[in-house]
Write a structure and sequence with these properties.
There is one protein chain. The chain is 42% helix and 5% strand. Strands 1-2 form a two-stranded parallel sheet. The protein has a single domain, classed as HUPs (Rossmann fold, 3-Layer(aba) Sandwich), CATH 3.40.50. Helix 1 links the parallel strand 1 and strand 2. The chain contains five helices and two strands, in the order βαβαααα. By secondary structure, the protein is mostly helical.
Length: 123
């Protein structure tokens, strides 16, 4: 599993924070790789490409709008790797119930940078 994200403003990185959560809360005990230099979604994709060149499947997991954006960026940067994308469980009923409407609005706002054909969910 690859966690990607640079400095979080609290002296650590987003990648390390997510890896720690996966291990301590979710009891993940598999292989973990960290990409801890990126500061934007575009850089997340750019910086993990060398780590995913030889994989059979690629699953991008994040908040739904962010995951959609990341998948679109992978398609722009490396269509050959984007062909290996598999569907992730972006939406889980009841998750983040009270803030979901705000996240949806924010997600729509951030997706404005995508072309209309990139705003659709596909595998």
């Amino acid at each position: 599993m690859i966690f990607s994200g640079g400095e979080n403003g609290a002296g650590g990185t987003e990648a390390q924070l997510m890896a720690d959560y996966a291990r301590s809360v979710l009891a993940f005990d598999g292989t973990v790789l960290l990409e801890d230099r990126s500061r934007t979604t575009w850089e997340n994709i750019t910086n993990v490409i060398p780590l995913i060149e030889e994989v059979d499947r690629i699953k991008i997991v994040s908040q739904p709008a962010h995951a959609l954006k990341a998948r679109a960026y992978l398609r722009r940067q490396r269509p050959d790797l984007a062909a290996k994308l598999v569907r992730a469980e972006d939406y889980r009923v009841g998750e983040w119930l009270l803030v979901k409407p705000l996240l949806a609005l924010y997600g729509l706002w951030t997706l404005r940078v995508l072309e209309s054909d990139e705003r659709t969910v596909s595998s």
